[in-house]
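Collaboration report, partner site 2.

Our partner group contributed sequences for two proteins of shared interest, and the home lab folded both. The records are reproduced in the order in which they were received, starting with the first partner submission.
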Amino acid sequence: MPTKKVTPVEEVVIEENGHNALLEASRKVLLAAIGAVALAQDEIEDFVDKLVERGEIAEKDGKKLVREVMDRRKKDAKEVEDETTKRVHDILDRMNVPSKKDIDLLSEKIALLTQKVDDLKK
């Protein structure tokens, strides 16, 4: 019995144990990013607290500064997320990976054809 040839893309996507390597890599990157954001927020708050302790800025100004920095980081993170989403969609399109919408549409067509075959059998 002939064995199926695995394309280079499939080699990247499927590990030996059958898990999706791309999904696992994405998960690791996401977890690392979340950790980096949490660490950055802690560092910013510590830095501003030290400035307040030394009397270099007022506590009210320190809180405002932390809020401004975090708002800016959220905006930047949203832009990165949007760009990442766009790139992932572009990659999936180039790899000809069907979208959920495509699969749902095909499922509907298969169900309709199955119904027609059943009707013809009667």
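Second partner submission, folded after the first:
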Amino acid sequence: MPKIDKKKRNWRDKYRFSVTNDTTFEEIWRIRLTKYNGFLLITFLVFFIIGSTVSLIAFTNLREFIPGYPDVNMRRNILLNAIRLDSVEKELSIRDRYFENLNLIISGQKPVNNYLPGDTSGKYKTIAFNRSPEDSALRAQVETADRYNLTLGPISVESVTSLAGLHFYPPVRGIVSGKFDPASKHFGTDIVTKPNSTVEAALDGTVILTGWTMETGFVIEVQHSNNIVSVYKHNSALLRETGDLVRTGEAIAVVGDSGELYTSGPHLHFEIWYKGTPLDPEKHIIF
């Protein structure tokens, strides 16, 4: 018992740490602690340092200095490469089916249907969509606010007379496989032509957009005079960059089959926009 009481007293004994002037022996700073208080103080400081370090690494850009941790550009490139890899796998699958059907036709057999089945992993028929009170209130607010908005409504009939003096150059020569149909949100014309044919500018202008999307593949847009914009989609390669000046009939892209929507072979999706309104290209160009 005496040894246990002595240990308890040692934990409760107070110790003083002081800073003293060596010349005048004046006590400048002091602190009085027990062993128990010192242990708690050291434990708090250790956990505070660990927590601060973890917070700095987790919520600041300091984590990018950790060896092996990807930075913003690397993560963006990883995501883009994953998307492109998925598209390449689909294109390779379509190409393999094409060659298989070609071999079957040569051998006198019936080709296999190229229909791509949808995703059957999910049970979409069992999904129930419930309209919440907040959703109904928001719909009513939007409908009330836009009731007298003159900018809404069906697409206005195009004015051909204002474009009568313009002569559009056909971007490609081929067969029209898809008509202009604003009702189905198909705002252009699909022209089937030879693979790797060049896509040529319909008018003089400036390239205002070049890029790639999962739906329409490689896309290039050209701004012309008189508030006219021409759009060229599903290209296999782009020959011009944003800001380049192009002349009528100048090659700007290569016909392809890029993109995952509305494409089943090499063709060009061509659109003409006049003052924000889509025009029927077949009324202005003979393909």
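Feedback sent to the partner group on the second submission included the following. The chain has a mean pLDDT of 80. Residues 2-62 form one domain.
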